[in-house]
Amino acid sequence: MKVKFTSIILLILMGMGASAQNLKFANPKDIALTPRQNNFRNKLDLSGIWKFKKDSANVGEKEQWFNGLEEFRSIAVPGSWNEQFTDMRDYLDWVWYETETYIPKSWKGEKIFIRVNDATYAAKIWVNGNPVGQHEGCHVPFAFTLNDFIKWDAPNRISIQVENILSPERVPTGNVPGSSLPNYPAANYDFFPYAGLNRSVLLYSVPDKAYIKDITVRPDFEGTTGKLDVLVEQNGVVRSGKIIVSGFGQEVVEPIIFKNGMANTVVEIPNVHLWSPDTPDLYDVTVVLNDGENTVDEYSLETGVRTVSVTENEILLNGKPIFLKGFGKHQDYPINGRGTALPVMVKDFELMKWTGANSFRTTHYPYDEEFYHMADREGIMIIGETPAVGLFFSGDSVQEDKRQEICMQYMHEMIYRDKNHPSVIMWCVANEPSDKASLGFSSAVRKTKAEKLRAYKKFEEHFKMAKALDPTRLVMYVGVMMGPKDWFALTDVIAINRYYGWYTSPGNIEMGANVIGKELDKLHEKFKKPCMVTEFGADSYPGFHSEQLEMFTEEFQKEFIKAYLDVADSREFVTGMHIWNFADFKTSQAIIRFGGYNYKGVFTRDRKPKMAAHYLRERWNSEAVKE
Fold it and tell me: What is the pLDDT of residue 445?
């Protein structure tokens, strides 16, 4: 098969040694449920200070560094190595991480997993010198079983090799010939290619006899009765169980019977509380596996009852029109880089609510799971996006097949993990894809009709996959300036990134607003779908002011945002405006990125408000009062 052949070629190119033949690839279904601690399951967080060593010559596997690192230094996990060390900002090649841990005796007789919540970009794992598994792809978890490699009553060495080499065959892409983003490091996207173990590493256990492998909850309601269509997948031979839905003084119990490892039932909730930004009400869904009178496994998650749909002009939440006010943003912060920092996450939600925002897009990759749990509780709507930023459908056919393969993998990993969050109302399959490798504003690369049709058909596969995995949510992609517009025939919502008055007609806000208005009119007239501007904004250097509007000042940024919002307010079919960006963020070095930063944030990188943030607080909160 082509997929298997491509994978073999990749292993050879990565210089893997003989032991790599025993490194299996991760199964996306193994990360469907967030690890929990309860009476039947255990969890151990390995976050902390690990050993770390650079392997610039890629000799570590041949020299068996997985048997213990020598001449190492210390690194924090989670956290990007590019920010933690003074000599490794632009280093993206091979490195090694190592830690030791005891596994509690109480875990004996259980199935034990290691779960890495993000290793950017490719990783391989050894435990006690034994090859465990490998994963390719960034910003998504992966997991492997460890039972065959564990030592009891002794420390267990965990070794993880990671690299983030930029390549045209990867997603997101890098080192693309002819790219319109000349920068260093040569990422084909406009944010810094932070590398390493950027999220937590967990050990967890589940019952060995049988355990709940996946739960899919699909919500609906009719009148005052909520309906949760619950599909349960188990690993084992247990035949029966039950589903308990509780909340707001009610508890509904439904028995389930398994056939071929699957069970399905619909739970009806009388006097249902619907989830929305105004009332982010959540229900507990508990699945219990029974072996006769004994409980074998149990898993609980929170979810909400709500529906999402569209008309020609509107996005409907629970059958009512909703306008998405918010931001594109990054997991980006000084010292942490792209590493998860929970206090920063809490602050970001506080500041979004402070401005009056009700939504954000996970630009340009799935975020740490805690973002989704918090969005559920806080009533913030999410457009969940895959790492397919700057994706293109042209050039080397082997590379294109590899990109297609990893995009399908991302779709499974993202949707398996995030499908039960009521806050997620849309999936975004790609940001600014193109039918040519030269992205951005360049149209110099001409494509034949046959080539354009082929690119369309390849991209159509992304939408079919997303709809097959989750038919309950909207699916979209985000279109770039000068990108193909016919692809919007595939989407539920038209979403565009536009910077008229900044990158084109620079400094002329009035002209930019006029152009974006006319384009929105044409798109809606052609496709008859609700429209969003998912990126718009202007760089402003913090504290830079002028008495007349001038680019890079805080005054210019505020007026730019105001003009675009006014355009949206005058069109009933515009159903969302996401400003680029929530906060200033780090980028590769480029002539248009002063100091290696994108300054389009309405907050500074350390979350201080600019004039635009104060303006949004005044405008969006007054709009909420009117509504």
Answer: 56
- Phi and psi, residue 436, nearest 5°: -140, 160
pLDDT tens digits, 596-617: 999 999 999 999 999 999 999 9
Rounded distance, CA 383 to CA 359, Å? Answer: 8
Question: Residue 103 in contact with residue 156, Cβ under 8 Å?
Answer: yes
Sign of the CA dihedral running 380, 385, 389, 393 = negative
Q: Give 625's pLDDT tier (boundaries 50, 70, 90).
A: low
Cα-atom radius of gyration of the chain, to the nearest Å?
24
Of the candidates 12, 6, 403, the residue with the CA atom closest to the CA atom of residue 169: 403
Q: For the chain, what are the domain ranges?
A: 2-207, 210-303, 308-626
User: Which of helix, strand or coil describes residue 594?
Assistant: helix
Active site residues: 432, 535
Beta-carbon neighbour count of residue 194 at 10 Å? 24
Contact 57, 63 (CB under 8 A): no
Q: Is 354 exposed, middle or buried (0-12, 13-18, 19+ CB in 10 A)?
A: middle
Q: Report the topology of domain 2-207.
A: Jelly Rolls (2.60.120)
Enclosing H/E stretch for 461: helix 449-469
Alpha carbon 502 to chain centroid distance? Answer: 28
Distance CA 380, CA 282 (A): 13
Q: Which pair of tokens denotes residue 403?
A: 């990109």
Q: How far apart are CA 137 and CA 403, in angstroms?
A: 11
The CATH number given to 308-626 is 3.20.20.80
Nearest to 19 by CA among 90, 110, 124: 124
Please give the distance of CA 462 from its chain centroid, rounded to a whole number.
Answer: 16
Burial 495-520 (b: 16+ CB within 10 A, else e): bbbbbbbbeeeeeebeebbbbbbebb
CA dihedral 85, 91, 93, 97 (to 10 degrees): 10
Fold of 210-303: Immunoglobulin-like (2.60.40)
Question: H-helix or E-strand containing 219?
Answer: strand 210-222
What is the three-state SS of 234-257?
EEECCCEEEEEEEECCEEEEEEEE
- Please state, in angstroms and as integers, the Cα–Cα distance from residue 128 to each residue in 101, 114, 136, following that order: 11, 13, 22
Whether the Cβ atoms of residue 416 and residue 29 lie closer than 8 Å to each other: yes
pLDDT digits (tens, 9 = 90+) for 110-125: 999 999 999 999 999 9
User: In the 8-state DSSP scheme, what is residue 27?
Assistant: P
Please report the sign of the dihedral spanned by the C-alpha atoms of residue 354, residue 357, residue 359, residue 362.
Answer: negative
Let me know: does 603 contact 610? Beta carbons within 8 Å.
yes
CA distances from 54 to 69, 334, 396 (A): 10, 22, 31
The one-character DSSP state at 532 is E
Neighbouring residues of 568: CB distance < 8 A, sequence distance ≥ 6: 533, 574, 577
**DSSP bridge partners of 225:** 222
- Average pLDDT of 330-338? 97
Query: At which residue do the structure tokens 């398996």 appear?
Result: 416
pLDDT reported for residue 302: 98
- How many Cβ atoms sit within 10 Å of the Cβ of residue 620? 18
Compute the distance between CA of residue 396 and CA of residue 173 in angstroms, rounded to an integer.
13
CA distance 520 to 571: 9
Question: Of 131, 168, 167, which is closest to residue 149 (Cα–Cα)?
Answer: 131
